Amino acid sequence: MKHEIDFIIKVLFILLLSLISILIIFTKPNITLRGNEVMEVNYNTEFKDPGYIATFIVSNVTKKVKVKGFVDTTKLGVYKIDYNLSINGFKNSKSRIVKVVDKKKPVIELIGNGNTCPGKSYVEEGYKAIDEIDGDLTSLIKVNVLDEKVVYSVTDKSGNSSIATRKLNIIDDIKPTITLNGSNYITIYTGGTYNELGANVTDNCDDQVALKIDGNVDTSKVGKYNITYTATDKSGNTESIIRTINVVDRLKDGIGKNIYLTFDDGPGPLTQQFLAILDKYGVKATFFVTNQFPNYQYLIGEEAKRGHAIAVHTYTHSYDVVYKSVDSYVDDFNRMNEIIKQQTGSYSNMFRYPGGSSNTVHCSRNPGVTRDIADTMLKLGYQYFDWNLSSGDASGYATRDSVYKAVANGAGASENTVILMHDIKSSTLSALPSIIENLQSRGFTFKTLDKNSFAPHHSFGICR
Ligand code: ZN
Question: In whole numbers, what is the pLDDT of the chain averaged over residues?
Fold first, then answer.
């Protein structure tokens, strides 16, 4: 009997244990993840947690889940998110692994059209490879040159590969380039000698291309003569250019043509003497003035009173100041124009860049600012003037003779000649009388610049 009771107690005990176990299992909170426990997400895309559901016995306790961890999709790597639930001391947790992966291929960009000279091997025109994560992979590109194509391949650090193919075209449709030795427009006085200086020919495909020169010059007769230079490459592409020889009578070649004498950088200590020479010959000029010599400001009024034109060449003439920014240029310009207004009673609507619009000294201050200055100033109603003939007087080697020759030989190449000189240079001061006598004897008309007159513009200086 005692035996049986023991047995029943044992069975009841086991039953009780089982019941407790079942209760514990049922009372443990439950978390179910939506989506996979291990996920992949692409680099730089948004990661959205697919979510989860939590229950405790029969109630929904999703809101009690605490989520720990984050996924930074801007960095490749493996991230872990923990979902923890704790209710009345009963705990459960789940976790999810998120891998941020790179599945994007690098992008190969080919430059050029694949044209290949007949009978020659392909000359690479250039390529680039950019990967969203690894950046510039250009140096890793493998190049395989075949008969009719070039194959480029590259693989990024995550193993994504790209291939690009360039089709080769065996063709030469590019003309030779002819470069004249000497100017394309030469003026010779009657009785002079024309020396043929020839030209150089280069070609994209052919090492040697013959040059044909046609035409002749009769220097005993006034007139314009054309010399034609022709070059044809092996594929039949022909280029031809012309040089014009203008044979003129020395004493009359300036008739119908205009001269604009322009003086920069003053007024200064020599300006009074410049004005006296101009008065003596009855010639009017254009002064691009600065405030580099403040004691001579009054001469701006004097220049205007004597019939010369006044234009702005900046207040400071400092590259650091005027080429710092468009605003800085405009401020400096306005300061000078105020002085002009004080001295002459009116503002000027003309200006000249220090160094000319083609200068590259601005590059070390603010590359390309010269073009932006033009955009702004032209919109504001101002006009700028470069020159199409330099006297060379800004050079340290300039002499009375070099300045005279530069002007006398260069004047009259076109209908309007705008001559760059400086009224702070003694070489120019001493050359000026003979310059004016030469130009007057040849029949030129002297004019002053105004906003609507002929305005030579150089190409803007390119910064490299
Ligand atoms: Zn200057």
Answer: 94
CA dist 167 and 115 (Å) reads 9
Compute the distance from residue 306 Cα to the ligand 1 centre, in Å: 22
CA of 345 relative to ligand 1 center, distance in Å = 24
pLDDT of 105 higher than 70: yes
CA of 151 to the centre of ligand 1 (A): 55
Q: Are 387 and 288 spatial neighbours (Cβ–Cβ below 8 Å)? A: no
> Which residues, 6 or more positions from 210, have their beta carbon under 8 angstroms from its beta carbon?
201, 231, 232
Q: What is the CATH architecture assignment of 28-101?
A: Sandwich (2.60)
User: Which superfamily does 258-446 belong to?
Assistant: Glycoside hydrolase/deacetylase (3.20.20.370)
pLDDT score, position 217? 96
* Domain 107-170 = CATH 2.30.29.30: no
**Domain boundary assignment for the chain:** 28-101, 107-170, 177-248, 258-446
Please give the share of the chain, as a percent, with pLDDT higher than 70: 98
Q: Please identify, in words, the CATH class of the domain defined by 177-248.
A: mainly beta
Contact 442, 252 (CB under 8 A): yes
Q: What is the pLDDT of residues 410-451, one digit of tens each?
A: 999 899 999 999 999 999 999 999 999 899 889 899 999 999
Tell me, in angstroms, the distance from the centre of ligand 1 to residue 268's CA. 13
Residue ranges with CB less than 5 Å from ion ligand 1: 264-265, 354
Q: Which two tokens stand for residue 143?
A: 């190049």
Q: 355: CA distance to ligand 1 center in Å?
A: 6
Examine the pLDDT at 184 and tell me if it is beyond 80: yes
Does residue 267 have a cis peptide bond before it, meaning omega lies within 30 degrees of 0?
yes
Segment 133-149 shows an average pLDDT of: 95
Same fold, 28-101 and 107-170: yes
Confirm if 448 and 285 have CB atoms less than 8 A apart: yes
Q: pLDDT tens for residues 23-60? A: 766 677 899 999 999 999 999 999 999 999 999 888 89
Does the pTM surpass 0.70? The reply is: no
Query: What's the token pair of residue 126?
Result: 């250039």
